[in-house]
Amino acid sequence: MMNCDILIIGGGPAGLEAAYHANKMAPELKIIIIEENFLLGGQLIKQTHSFFGSKEQYAGTRGFEISNLLMERIKNKENIDIMLQTSALGYYEPGIISCESSEHKLMEIKAKKIIVATGARENMAVFPGNDLPGVFGAGAAQTLMNVYGVLPGKKILMLGAGNIGLIVSYQLMQAGAEVVAIVEGLPTIGGYHVHAAKIRRMGVPILTSHTVIRASGKDKLEEVEIAGIDSNWKINTDISKYNVDTLCLSVGLTPSIELLQQAGCRLEFVKELGGFVAWHNEYLETSNPNILIAGDVSGIEEASTAMIEGRVAALNAVSKITSRDISEEMQNAQDSLNNLRRGPYGEKARLGKEKLIAMYGGSHV
Amino acid sequence: MRIKNHPVLDFKKGKKVTFYFNGKELSGYEGEAVVAALHANGIKVLSHSLRHKRPRGLYCAIGKCASCMMRVNGIDNVRTCILPLEQGMKIESQPGKGELK
Questions:
Q1: Is the Cβ pair A38, B55 closer than 8 Å?
Q2: Distance in Å, alpha carbon of A328 to nearest chain B alpha carbon
Q3: Which residues contact B10 (CB under 8 A, 6 or more apart)?
Q4: Closest CA of chain B from A149, distance in Å
């Protein structure tokens, strides 16, 4: 069995920032990051758009450049071990995580504090043929084209006009694919106006109050049927058909809570946070005092908030392990989080977090 | 299909390597995800559903959805979306649930 002070599960923006700040506050603590992919950086590595928000959170910098900066900060640190292609399998008391190593071997890591930063997964939309090859999560299409330089297809239909749907559509065109339309079930576009305007300027229609009702093809996608819908999602127009080889689904994300669920952390359904999340307080402690969380697994938000949550969880872990006074750094981090959640686009997450924190008087249950 | 010119990105490719898909020799780049190399070779069907044998392709690309699980060098249920390609790798469609060896 391996031992460490802080075990971080997930090497995305939340996990990398947790490692950096824990090491900065307490360089003597032994930190291990495990990551199931062979690349660090989580979903930042495929993001070619420039970030909004505050300077502190790298506004104006492209996502993949931010991930390079975060990786650079924790490189060659004596007390940070990074284990790639390593998957967490289960939690055992007290504070033990079983893992599958890159050589397909079973191993165990014992830690004083565990920070779970496992991120989120893309939602599926329900219609016949949604399992055909050629139907991708929008993020998956983005990974293929922006990380590996491989186009998912030539002719593409996008479902979902939130920020991910809009941005990925634009990037697909940048990479040389044809986007025939963006289809959105709601009567309004969910993403930022600046992204939607870019799409419209390129002549791509954004069909609001429309949805995909069927995908078909032999062995892979050939045709997608869409229809207009009313506010009760009942079809109210004729069906139109598109011959496309790719359909991207950008219909939201769900926190990847499986490990927390298996660990017995108390779960709560909070719609504003994307579904079930582990109950946590403002210091990102779950109902199990050994386990902290950070990033999308604690509620769907942005990479910028994930980075600060990583910092909050790290500060909390350091203070519990070393009894060091972290109150000033914690206040700064909490202020940054509140700033980012203040605008209209941060409202959902803010409401969700407030709901959770108000439960059980904000303490362990 | 590989992207030739990109306005923002400069794709750093590894060494060109050969690998096998169901016995057929194909080429790709060392260190890219196995699914990327398969897609670049036009292969989109990665697995089949257990009961109705419906074809399944890449869906999440981050190791979370299981539709890219294949047999790699004789080991079943490997998530090929988070596996780096190596010279001589043997990738195969996996029958059913696979075997524990």
A1: no
A2: 36
A3: none
A4: 5
| B100 shares contact with chain A (CB less than 8 Å) | no
| CATH, range B16-92 | 3.10.20.440
A74 and A190 assigned to the same domain: no
Other beta carbons within 10 Å of B16? 10
* Identity at A228, one-letter amino acid code: G
Amino acid occupying residue A141: A
> Is A130 in the same domain as A232?
yes
Task: Give chain A's radius of gyration (CA, Å).
Answer: 21
Query: What would the mean pLDDT of A301-321 be, rounded to a whole number?
Result: 97
Residues A51 and A132 in one domain: no
> What domain range includes position A181?
124-249
- Interchain CB distance below 8 Å, B6 and A175: yes
Q: Does the structure show a pLDDT above 60 at A365? A: no
Same domain, A113 and A187: no
| CA–CA dist A268, A263 (Å, integer) | 14
Q: Is B26 on the interface with A (CB under 8 A)?
A: no
ipTM of the complex: 0.96
Which residues of B fall within a CB distance of 8 Å from A146? 9
Give B101's pLDDT tier (boundaries 50, 70, 90).
confident
- Say yes or no: A135 contacts chain B, CB-CB below 8 A: yes
